[in-house]
Design goal:
Elements lengths: L1 H24 L8 E3 L2 E2 L5 H11 L5 E5 L2 E5 L1 H4 L2 E2 L1 H10 L6 H9 L6 E3 L3 E2 L2 H15 L7 E5 L2 E5 L4 E4 L1 H13 L6 E2 L2 E4 L5 H13 L4 E6 L2 E5 L1 H7 E2 L2 E2 L1 H15 L7 E6 L2 E6 L4 E4 L1 H14 L5 E5 L2 E4 L15 E9 L5 H14 L3 E2 L4 E3 H5 L10 E6 L2 E6 L3 H15 L3 E3 L30 E3 L6 E8 L4 E8 L5 E4 L3 E6 L5 E4 L8 E5 L4 E12 L2 E12 L5 E4 L4
Parallel strand pairs: 1-6, 3-11, 13-20, 33-37
Antiparallel strand pairs: 1-2, 3-4, 5-7, 8-9, 10-12, 13-14, 15-16, 17-18, 19-21, 22-30, 23-29, 24-28, 25-26, 27-28, 29-30, 31-35, 32-35, 34-37, 35-36
Helix pairs in contact: 2-4, 10-11, 12-14
Amino acid sequence: MRQFIWVIVGLGLVILITVTAFELAYWQKIYPPIMVGGVVVGNLTPDQASQKLAQQLIARPLLLKWQGTQWTIFPSQIGLEYDSSQSAKQAYLAGRQGSIWTTTQVKLRAFGQPLTIDPVFSWNENQLVAATASISAQINIPARESEVQLDGKAVIVLPGENGQAIDERDLRQKIKVAITALSADPIDIPVTDIQPKLTAGQAEEMRQRGEKLLNKKLVLVLEQNRWTIDTDQIFSWMDASGWNRTYIEDWVNQLILAVDRPAQNALFKYVGEGKVEAFQPARDGLTVKKDELVNSIATNLDKLPDQESLEVDIPVARSKPQVATAEVNDLGIKELIGRGESDYSGSIANRIFNLKKAAAYMNGVLIAPGEVFSFNKYVGDISTEGGYKQAYVIKGGKTILGDGGGVCQVSTTMFRAALNVGLPIVERTAHAYRVHYYEQDSGPGYDATIFTPSTDFKFKNDTSAYILIQTKLDEPHKKLAFEFYGTSDGRQVSLTKPKVWDVAAPPPDLYTDDPTLPPGTVKQIDWKAWGAKASFDYKVTRNGEVLQSRTFYSSYRPWQAVYLRGPVL
């Protein structure tokens, strides 16, 4: 027994001497099994290890790959830096801190496998997210859900398609591992498939819903304005649960930009000679009640399968102006009583100049009760001497360059405004042939030509108050409008769609040699138009009394295209 005790004591002394010798050998040094990111730092002091690591821990560009394509993220892009001093300190503390079991394991590895610890490094997390996001933008493809669309007259369902997306969290983890291991190997970008949310059955249910909504429309109404939501738009809002409210809200947000307005105080300055300067009618301020409108649209869309169309009033909050129109004039001008509009898209520069000039002469004109308005009275001298430019006009059975081309766009717009107000038309003449400008936003027949001094356009103010004419130009959309202000007396206007008959094809194109043109040059000076006869009915009533009832007729002759060509040598 005594012998066994001495063996134990002896063994303990050997271990103590060995441990003491090991610790003395590595006093102020890193234990021999330690490596930092593959760099051997064992048997070095922390300062020596720090110097060695500063030379070998160099941030490298990171290579990322996917399906044969590579991307590079440079250390400067993500603020990547290794800390050699802290890395050396961590290496020194390995085996010197922690539990006895942990420190003993480290020391015992000096006689076996080396121990690799991670280097200490830093990066900018936000910059790393930005760098990986730019790669994601090139790889990610969202899953496409099944869509209901209109193909001609048939409702079809476009099948959904799988998408793909980078697992950015996994990618950043892989990048961290590569940085830790000082690896120069390309990093495989983890890309996962994304499945559409809608099943084939849900898509078929949407198609059946679409069948019930075919050719249906929802019309939003506010004051004189109307916005039509047609079948294509309705289909784009459909989803498996009903209606995608986010899409509807996005559409309503765009509508709000066109509707919301601050309250406008009235401004009125009478300058004599039957004209007003700086007129501005009082208007309520409007703010669309967004949530209420979105709910109303969704609710009425559910009702639409049982209706041909539905009208929905746009809910708004109103704010009153501080100064009303009635407070700044004594002419009875209180409100907008009607407007007319035409489209001049495609007009040449001189034509636009002339219509703007003629419209400006009409702006601010006052028409007294009982007065007959004459267009020619206000339009001025339609000539180059009067400030107008040359543009195409109809004269002598031909379309030629003449003074004031485009003025008839103004008289046509005025004609439409007078009709919409419900005023008696005293004189109106249709054009000799159909002018495409006037049918870009209207059927044939809603036009009025003038030719000073013989051909005029006239209407009468048969209301009890003055009528003020205001010109409105929407240059981005190439629209001309006239707004009539006065006092509404409750009259109602009915205008039918035009009837068209005796349609005649234009004659063959006519080519005429012009020796002033270079050889082989062809220049079009007249455009073909189909001939036709057209009419529409105009009826104005007030409290059951018929104030106006007449039919406007137009007879347009067919017109041939005319070309000038240079002589062939």
